[in-house]
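Reopening this one. Same input as before:
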Amino acid sequence: MRMNICLLFNLISMLTAFQLKGQLPAEKITELDAFFDEQYGPDQSLVNGARYYNMHLLASGHKFFGEDEFREGKLVLDNREYNDVFLKYNLYEQQIILRYTYLDQIYHEIIPSNSRIHEFELDGKVFRKCNFPGTDTLIYQIIEADDLAFYFHWSKTLSPGSSKEYIMGEFHQSKRDSYMLRNSTLHKFRGAKSFSKIFPEHQSEILKYIRKNIIMIKQATDAEMINLLRQCNIIIRG
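Same output, byte for byte:
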């Protein structure tokens, strides 16, 4: 009976607060949201997912994008944006791992359903789930400049380990598959020549720019690739 009274009291408090939210200034609404996070836990739409277990603890290396640590980023779930969340991008299993704390002050790690994820940001890079004709739905890092865009798909592979050393596999370096989206078509490229062929009418000019600026396509940084995109736009427009 006592528990029912407590639940009823909490329900009345919640309804009253929600009614007040429409009449409060923005800063008070933020305070009220923080109060409910503390009292009733984090947003259930955000923390709804399978619990994460690392099944490769004995493997050499790690399977994540960048460092093996949670970093602050942004996540878009069901078209709702969540800022200041802590994420890891599992390249081997193509999963996003979310870490959060609750009233117990213990870290919880979950895997949001891939079907709910639209986009996320990590280390200042934008990743988006996309589907193109003839391809599976994949997660791409996207770099855009005017009418052109690079789509990078990142992955990692695991090779068998040595049973004598008790190492259960070894994760290799991150692999980046590079594509360009032009005229609604996704073009894959590996190096300078295959990239320049995406622009048959300007192939020699683009190849000349790449060689002059010593751009190593396979190892190029995001900044170098952005500059390349911008130069391609300048060449195309004459």
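So the earlier flakiness isn't reproducible anymore. For the record, Residues 1-22 have pLDDT under 50 and may be disordered.
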